[in-house]
Amino acid sequence: MAIKLYTNSFSRGVVVDWLLIELGIECERIEVAFQTEMKAPEYLKINPFGKVPVLVDGDVVVYELDAICAYLADKFADKGLAPALNDPKRGVYYRWLFFISGPWEAASTNKMLGVEVKPDQKGSVGYGDYQDAYNAFVQGLSEVDPYLCGKQFTAADVTVAAMLFWQLKMGDIQSHPAIEHYLENIKQRPSYQKFAAFFSNA
Ligand SMILES: N[C@@H](CCC(=O)N[C@@H](CS)C(=O)NCC(=O)O)C(=O)O
């Protein structure tokens, strides 16, 4: 049975498209319209958030972009897009996947909404404040060479790089030499050219 990807070409679903290119596999791609199909009762049974992307693999339903990418990288482990379970780099891999979908997304969204964390609130906020999250991000990137897990390009590179490309395009992140250097490495990958085409439409 084909794996199904519920997505929209103008959404973060394009990040899954990029990963699929790296994996060299295809899914049945189901385009879901914003507002209408995404909020229809039958779609809400698949994803109660009424959002894309969603991956359906037989009885397994995965929503949350980074979970989808991690799931696919593990399912097609022979493609080498995730460090092996017993590889110490697995920890670094998890760190980046969870950092980008958790603290970084929250910090960025709150910044966009104008929610400022006061110094005495930082201890209760998972990412501290935006500047803390940004500093941790660029500090981490300044240590990578050429990819987040060293020589091995992984699904975490797909999600982290996609976030950076998007935020730079939208003016939602201040650039930094560590960001530029990392993205130059990513741009060398043949898959990036195809992603850039999706992305320029998103
Ligand atoms: N945390 C989710 C966020 C998904 C999300 O916000 N998707 C947007 C498109 S990029 C969406 O479907 N928005 C439609 C809506 O909320 O009505 C993930 O990482 O997959």
UniProtKB/TrEMBL annotation:
<feature type="domain" description="GST N-terminal">
    <location>
        <begin position="1"/>
        <end position="80"/>
    </location>
</feature>
<feature type="domain" description="GST C-terminal">
    <location>
        <begin position="86"/>
        <end position="202"/>
    </location>
</feature>
<dbReference type="InterPro" id="IPR040079">
    <property type="entry name" value="Glutathione_S-Trfase"/>
</dbReference>
<dbReference type="InterPro" id="IPR036249">
    <property type="entry name" value="Thioredoxin-like_sf"/>
</dbReference>
<dbReference type="InterPro" id="IPR004045">
    <property type="entry name" value="Glutathione_S-Trfase_N"/>
</dbReference>
<dbReference type="InterPro" id="IPR010987">
    <property type="entry name" value="Glutathione-S-Trfase_C-like"/>
</dbReference>
<dbReference type="InterPro" id="IPR036282">
    <property type="entry name" value="Glutathione-S-Trfase_C_sf"/>
</dbReference>
<protein>
    <recommendedName>
        <fullName>Glutathione S-transferase</fullName>
    </recommendedName>
</protein>
<dbReference type="Pfam" id="PF02798">
    <property type="entry name" value="GST_N"/>
</dbReference>
